[in-house]
Write a structure and sequence with these properties.
Blueprint lengths: L1 H33 L3 H7 L14 H13 L10
Helix pairs in contact: 1-2
Length: 81
């Protein structure tokens, strides 16, 4: 049953990619929000980052500037998964 074997490989591959994506996203958020390491965050957040909120300035710099302003109030990020 080659079809079943292919499907199992495909499903495993998809699950692995999801884990990798989740890990990368957690690292990016932790680096930016908790470690406040903006130089490292620049390596993790694309310079072409698209900010979809109308309340936040465009791009990666808009996000970074928002985080800088709210972190003064002690804001941190905690992954709930």
């Amino acid at each position: 049953m080659a079809g079943v074997e292919d499907m199992n490989f495909s499903a495993r591959h998809i699950l692995q990619r999801k884990r990798e994506t989740r890990r990368a996203a957690s690292e990016a958020f932790d680096t930016l929000f908790n470690n406040r390491d903006y130089a490292a965050a620049e390596r993790l957040w694309s310079p072409n980052y698209i900010q979809h909120s109308a309340h936040i300035a465009l791009g990666r710099e808009g996000l970074f500037n928002l985080i800088k302003s709210i972190l003064r109030d002690g804001f941190t990020f905690a992954n709930q998964r």
